[in-house]
Amino acid sequence: MDTKGKAQKDMKGRAQTDTKGRSQTDTKSRTPADMKGKSPVGAKRGTPADTKGRATDRRVKYTKMALRASLIALLKEKSIDKISIKEICEHADVNRSTFYKHYGDQYDLLRQIEADLLANINDLLTDYNFKEYEAGSNRIMERIFAYIAENADLCKVILGEHGDVAFQKELMTFVQRQSMEEWQWDDRAVGEEKWEYYLCFSLNGGIGIVQKWLMGNLQKSAREIADLMIALTYKGMSGIIE
Prior knowledge:
Structural class: mainly alpha
Oligomer: single chain
């Protein structure tokens, strides 16, 4: 065999060996050990961190709900200054260390409950124009009373004898501020000072109506209480005389 033939034979052999070697190496590199855990193209999967995060969020939500429910139950029996963190935790079956992850103390827990209540009522009032006529006022009042009825256990506590008086005043001030912003320059206005007296009278009376309604186990509907509130606010006793 001449020199040229030998060279061609050697080159062909090396090419076959290299191709075979690369094929085997590539195949080996794609064994189940290396492909394990890979998803098909386009597949969407949550990572272990995502799954763990969702589980943690659910636990936190449940823990907060349990602690809030515990405090509300205890407030039915005594005022906040008579309630200890130990009692709240035992009633909720939650460790004290877990409690402190979410709240500074029992007062902080109560403040957050109150803040949520105020925020929800604010949502009901945000898009309402107080300059509308009585029919509009009745509708917004009915929505508020419906919310109170849906959250009767909470509202009984917050607005009851063991409730936070400071928050009750805050709630009245909030409603008063909302009212003043819309009604202050109404044609029916009689001067700012007299108007403020009127609002204090009507809002404190309104809290009394709500308390009586709650303590009476909501025997009247939200619409009936709304109609009563509006009639007394606009017309006094003459508004409810049949």
